Amino acid sequence: MHPQFRLPGAHSSSSPSSSSSPTDRRLSALLRHLADSSASSAMDSENPHTTTISASPTSGFDSNSVFAHVVRAPEDPILGVTVAYNKDPSPVKLNLGVGAYRTEEGKPLVLNVVRQAEQKLVNDRSRTKEYLPITGLAAFNKLSAKLMFGADSPAIQENRVTTVQCLSGTGSLRVGGEFLARHYHQRTIYIPSPTWGNHTKIFNLAGLSVKTYRYYDPATRGLNFQGLLEDLGSAPSGAIVLLHACAHNPTGVDPTLQQWEQIRQLMRSKGLLPFFDSAYQGFASGSLDADAQSVRMFVADGGECLAAQSYAKNMGLYGERVGALSIVCGTADVASRVESQLKLVIRPMYSNPPIHGASIVATILGDRDMYNEWTIELKGMADRIISMRHQLFDALRAKGTPGDWSHIIKQIGMFTFTGLNTEQVAFMTKEYHIYMTSDGRISMAGLSSRTVPHLVDAIHAAVTRVV
Ligand code: PLA
């Protein structure tokens, strides 16, 4: 009998006992039938001319599905928070889980400049819906590289950068990871601890082996710089290192420029390959250039690196899935060969990227007025987040909530890593309908002046009642 047909307690040779239930008897009959048909199909392979009717592919033992064995997977630790939030009927519920910008009124925001660009695209009757090339929209790629590396970047001028349009930040990381697994001599990537939860999964699936380096110190709620230097210092030569370009997720803790410089020197001296994840350019400080400093320092030294860009947050194009992967290479010739291989990674994955979002980005980045308007709107979003930090910090102080909450105003970007533990988070969700990731991360972009008092009440209750 084929092993896959055996059930616990079911024996093909034993006949159903008189005490067995109708279900048992039915199963036994089914097992005998399957054993017979598998034996006859073994004979069929010896005599290919014999035809038999085999068991229906949908016949299972405990259901009518060949997928009956599939176990339910847990919800995603971040996107699952929104699933739970959506199910909650409470009128006071608050979603501080996913990093998606909301207005003071708690509404999603489509930037004015994005609406304008879309209008322009719709009005242009010459535009078609043809496939893009495998590497995406050429103008988009060119402008994205400029945005990341700076308009005057020698690497761009020397044609040493290849940029391919990918499916937002996630897709860019995935394509970059798979390219490295295929063509780079070191298959180990070091990611910070902690980091965005998807990094490990993305790089593992891409074929890399994932290790961590120390990054965050819970005691100071700041950077564990010593630990970081030690771990990168003892990484094998050539290893890949994932760096958050700015606004580290989930901690909101970034190295200073001086610390970046030390990291750069260490990494270059050991031949470690930097892979930047730039998901929040413009969101940390409100300035696109300031937030690209870390990346530009590494490119300025003439060395090689990778950068994954996302337009989800800084242009509010979350669902359009617009992003880019750039690989800065030693020479123009290498860059063009690298690009030819990136196409081989992309083509069987999703063939070519979508046209609409990239056209919006290219329209905005390619028009001086629109670009300026974008930077103003972007600064507006960053400023509102910073103001939320101050409001939350002031309100916790005013209420006398125990603890030092200064990290709320020291941390950078979309998130505050509150320091609240899993139990406290669960308590806040249950009692206050406040949704956040279980590691205590809150999306400051989901908060507004109106909802600060509710959050403060919840935090106060959590830290005084749940230890
Ligand atoms: N890299 C980092 C560091 C991120 O935080 C995110 C998104 C991405 C890449 C990918 O974004 P994209 O594919 O949409 O461009 N992180 C979010 C959303 C905002 C998520 O988990 O997907 C977060 O809440 O952490």
TrEMBL record:
A Pfam family recorded for this sequence: Aminotran_1_2
> Which Enzyme Commission number(s) are listed?
2.6.1.1
Q: What is this protein called?
A: Aspartate aminotransferase
Q: Which GO terms describe its biological process?
A: amino acid metabolic process
Per the UniProt record, the source organism is Liquidambar formosana (Formosan gum)
Taxonomic lineage per UniProt?
Answer: Eukaryota, Viridiplantae, Streptophyta, Embryophyta, Tracheophyta
**All copies of domain Aminotransferase class I/classII large, residue ranges:** 93-459
UniProt keyword annotations, A-Z? Aminotransferase, Pyridoxal phosphate, Transferase
Assembly and oligomerization = Homodimer.
